[in-house]
Amino acid sequence: MAERLIEVKDLEVKFATEDGVVNAVDGVSFELQRGEVLGIVGESGSGKSVTAMTLLGLTRDKNARFGGEVLYKGRDVLQMNEDELEDVRGNEMSMIFQDPMTSLNPVYTIGAQICEAIQIHERADKGAARRRAVELLKQVGIPNAEERVGNYPHEFSGGMRQRAMIAMALACNPDVLIADEPTTALDVTIQAQIIELIDRLKDEFNSAVILITHDLGVVAEIADEIVVMYAGRIVERAMKRELFYDPQHPYTWGLLGSIPRLDRPKQERLHSIKGTPPSLIRMPPGCKFRPRCPHAFEKCTQEPSLENRVEDPKHLDRCWLSVDDKRRLRESTLLGEEEAA
Amino acid sequence: MSESSNGNEPLVEVKNVKKYFPIRKGLLQREVGAVHAVDDVTFAVREGETLGLVGESGCGKSTLGRTIVRLLEPTEGNVVFRGRDISKLGSRSLRPLRREMQMIFQDPYASLNPRKRVGSIIGTPLKIHGVDKSERRQRVQELLEKVGLSPEHYNRFPHEFSGGQRQRIGVARALALNPKLIVADEPVSALDVSIQSQMLNLLGDLQKELSLTYIFIAHDLGVVRHVSDRIAVMYLGKLVELSPAEDLYQRPIMPYTEALLSAVPIPDPDLAEQRERIVLEGDVPSPIDPPSGCRFHPRCRYMTDICKQVEPPLVDYGKGHLAACHHPLNVDQETLERVRVSKRHTPASADEGATPAKPGKERSRPIPRSG
To answer: To probe the interface with A, which of B167, B192, B236, B261 has the most A CB atoms within 10 Å?
Structure first.
């Protein structure tokens, strides 16, 4: 069996703010094995980025409260002190951010920024670190890596910057690579390159990947398992094929239905999910998706638990509808037909 | 010819438009080169239609959009709006025209002044054009409703809104003066997919209701299909394919379009696995010193010697489908012998005699069909 790298158990993250307590993540659990790609999908404000950042201890703050466990190879990241965390960050788990322009330092060369991580974690000397930086840039497909290593971020295009970010994240052979919307700011052509790159490097570096995105189209290519988040909770969790071909939660249907599909005839109007996600401070009682759900009924004023309701035991969802009803009701949404308001 | 076939008059004509940005260096600020952002592009947009303008970052699509609404002055060539050449007008004579053409910007965060209230943001164009205060308030509230916001939002600030709602404010502002033409520069690429579809539906509804003409700029062919009647594909400042929308998706002719189509993710694991991915290597080359011949040749998988030397003309493949390529896709030998060069669309630097001799591939379907 593959080695289990990460186990998140009932993770809760709350932030105290002037307006009240923000329940950013509420009872999230998942596992990640070596060699696996886990996709975390949801809209802005669903808690997907907070979850990922918490894995690296990046959400620690005076006003933050945590619950549950984040086990990395059996050790709880939430209980680690700053020194222990420093060892884990970059070295064992590393992160790629959405915007490669703001996450690179404009006044240092690309090479210097990659070398920094290598020198800190591997105590390599300058020359060795630089050689390693060049090699990494080659691996992520930067042409003329020997010259390019001395460039500043502004001399790189958007796609090259994201490649440089990936090189930096891989500098210390991490076991887990967390990619937070790595392609959202990029052209589709470059997005295709980056997705392919992440997929290839995962095998070369024998690591595992958590890929966070709002676009189910992106994870359809490389994810093994997918977690769909809404209002800080997991509303559905399944292996890729199960999720795409037998989706159980109306929110997942909505996400799937609102992607413009080139592989189908053109539609007059696109399906869209009505309204906006709820405030994480004052959440509606019961199922959090209820105010936007076209299929809500009386029972939905109580919150359903995340459990297995279909044949595949690994497929979990959080919806009261019976499986038969779901399979019947979802068709029009999945075909992208517009919902009656 | 092909562009007036449905009877509607062209609202905008772009004729041999070039936009170069000079690069200056040294003490005397001598011009040492130029960025060839838009390089001899010709097309027309009919009244009431949506033209999708597609290409990667740096292909000149935004520059062209800005040149059409005269936020930029073309270096050469003409922009004709409702029969009148506006390419050399000064700012005073442009002012009445500004009512008729408006823009929606990509970034809903950067394009709204954070210190102004929504009412004032949407009302400013009305104020500039002399609408009095009480009428303004009423009009702004109407506009807010029209774009799916509440009139009560009048006194709020932009930070109180989500990205999708902010983009609606941008749309309301663009609609304030009842424009004829709206240039939307990547209006949905900063939004979540679920919000994207709301926005696309809204733009479609408004077009029907207000008989608007859109130029819709995007890098993603998946998004533009839904709104466009015709699509123009640009690469490094050149127009490389122009086609009725559905035809472009069924049979792309230019290999660049084929690659763009194959990069659009398909949310279906089986189809995604089956299809052949054409991953373009590298980035768009520098527009300061663009490649010779066909500008796409360094990244093209059908490239031969002629592509390096001769710039291909825009060839008319019928039904208003034009493409510039020496090795066109989805055409057979027989068709190739019939087709003619469109002199009107072909840039001066291309060789009008160089009609393609052999198809690159007779059948290419970068988008698999489900079901």
So the answer is: B192
Instruction: Name the DSSP letter for residue B371.
Output: -
**What's the CA gap between B346 and B239, in Å, rounded?**
9
Residue type, B240: V
Q: E strands of chain A, at which residues?
A: 4-17, 20-33, 37-41, 64-72, 75-76, 93-96, 176-180, 208-213, 225-230, 233-239, 307-308, 316-317
Does A143 touch chain B if contact means CB atoms closer than 8 Å? Answer: yes
**B203 chain-A contacts, CB cut-off 8 A:** none
DSSP A154-179: GGS-HHHHHHHHHHHHHTT--SEEEE
Would you state the structure tokens that stand for residue A16, as one six-digit string? Answer: 């105290």
A260 and B197: CB-CB below 8 Å? yes
**Arithmetic mean of pLDDT over chain A:** 90
The answer to whether the Cβ–Cβ distance between A259 and B193 falls below 8 Å is yes
CA dist A140 and A196 (Å) reads: 10
pLDDT grade for A329, boundaries at 50, 70 and 90: very high
Distances (CA, A) of B170 to A190, B125, B228: 28, 12, 20
pLDDT on residue B191: 85
**The predicted structure's pLDDT at residue B1:** 41
Start-end of H helices in chain B: 61-68, 91-98, 118-128, 133-146, 163-175, 193-210, 221-227, 245-250, 255-263, 269-274, 305-309, 333-338
Question: Which tokens belong to B13?
Answer: 């004509």
Q: Tens digit of pLDDT for each residue in B10-35?
A: 999 999 999 999 998 888 888 888 99
pLDDT classification of A340: cutoffs 50, 70, 90:
very low
What separation in angstroms does the CA of B278 have from each of B19, B57, B252, B261?
A: 31, 18, 14, 9
